[in-house]
């Protein structure tokens, strides 16, 4: 049995005369890995922004676990379980990696000072370990490489114990080793976390996703399993038109 976690209905966002996201219906089941693909400018990042709350829709509705979140801002959505990593990692550069994760974790935990170590610090160190940033306790995040910042942002998103993780091109700018680690990490996330992933690298999409939605000019042109999408004529057409 599947349960709808995220339901978007007729979600629309315009920029002047351009409709970047055009009446999009999208469903993400609890625990599902769902990828958004499509040519440049198809509206993928705008759709993620609409789900995360960074951008307000001009039309349509958005529900998370049955609750209407259309009018909620990003902080409220984050508290309801939507975590996000961005195309350019958003971390606090002057804080250590550990402090970044603690800052991200605190709004999601009710804990008195007496239990800070066991309930916050120790789990945050464990998260750093999980994403491959062991020992990130002392140096300022400004000194981390791009790949390490991406790992840190993932630890920060996980610290909020999300039900839905939004990933915008997580493999961009990573070395082959880092991509390998990222795929292992995303594959090993518990099924209590659903993932909505925008990624240009189709090899990664096909490995990670349960279902794929293809956007073209702001419209969904196909949704299906990786196999169905690979074989879809509509998908080939959308990409072919985009490259001319
Ligand atoms: N803030 C903005 N102001 C004006 N136009 C915008 C804005 N953000 C996005 N757009 C336009 O909306 C359309 C969709 O952009 P979006 O970034 O969502 O596409 P995308 O599928 O993520 O593309 P890419 O794969 O290149 O990242 C594009 O034509 C883009 O130029």
TrEMBL record:
GO molecular function, one term: ATP binding
Key words of the record: ATP-binding, Nucleotide-binding, Transport
Xref: Gene3D superfamilies: P-loop containing nucleotide triphosphate hydrolases
Domain of life: Bacteria
Alphabetical list of InterPro entries matching this protein: AAA+_ATPase, ABC_AA/LPS_Transport, ABC_transporter-like_ATP-bd, P-loop_NTPase
SUPFAM superfamilies recorded: P-loop containing nucleoside triphosphate hydrolases
Residue ranges annotated for the ABC transporter domain, each copy included: 6-242
Listed PANTHER family: ABC TRANSPORTER ATP-BINDING PROTEIN, CONSERVED COMPONENT OF ABC TRANSPORTER FOR NATURAL AMINO ACIDS-RELATED
Protein name, entry field: ABC transporter ATP-binding protein
């Amino acid at each position: 049995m599947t349960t709808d976690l995220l339901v978007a209905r007729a979600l629309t966002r315009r920029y002047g005369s351009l409709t970047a996201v055009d009446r999009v219906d999208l469903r993400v089941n609890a625990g599902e890995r769902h990828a958004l693909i499509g040519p440049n400018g198809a509206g993928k990042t705008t759709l993620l922004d609409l789900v995360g709350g960074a951008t307000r829709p001009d039309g349509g509705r958005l529900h998370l676990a049955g609750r209407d979140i259309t009018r909620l801002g990003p902080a409220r959505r984050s508290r309801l379980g939507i975590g996000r990593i961005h195309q350019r990692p958003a971390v606090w550069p002057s804080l250590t990696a550990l402090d970044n994760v603690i800052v991200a974790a605190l709004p999601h935990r009710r804990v008195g000072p007496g239990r800070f170590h066991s309930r916050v610090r120790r789990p945050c160190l464990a998260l750093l370990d999980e994403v491959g940033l062991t020992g990130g306790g002392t140096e300022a995040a400004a000194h981390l490489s791009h790949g390490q910042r991406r790992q840190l942002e993932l630890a920060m998103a996980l610290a909020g114990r999300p039900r839905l993780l939004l990933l915008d091109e997580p493999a961009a700018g990573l070395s082959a080793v880092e991509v390998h680690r990222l795929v292992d990490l995303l594959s090993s996330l518990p099924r209590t976390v659903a993932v909505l992933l925008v990624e240009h690298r189709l090899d990664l999409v096909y490995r990670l996703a349960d279902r794929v939605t293809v956007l073209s000019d702001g419209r969904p042109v196909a949704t299906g399993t990786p196999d169905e999408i690979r074989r879809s004529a509509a998908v080939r057409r959308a990409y072919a038109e985009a490259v001319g």
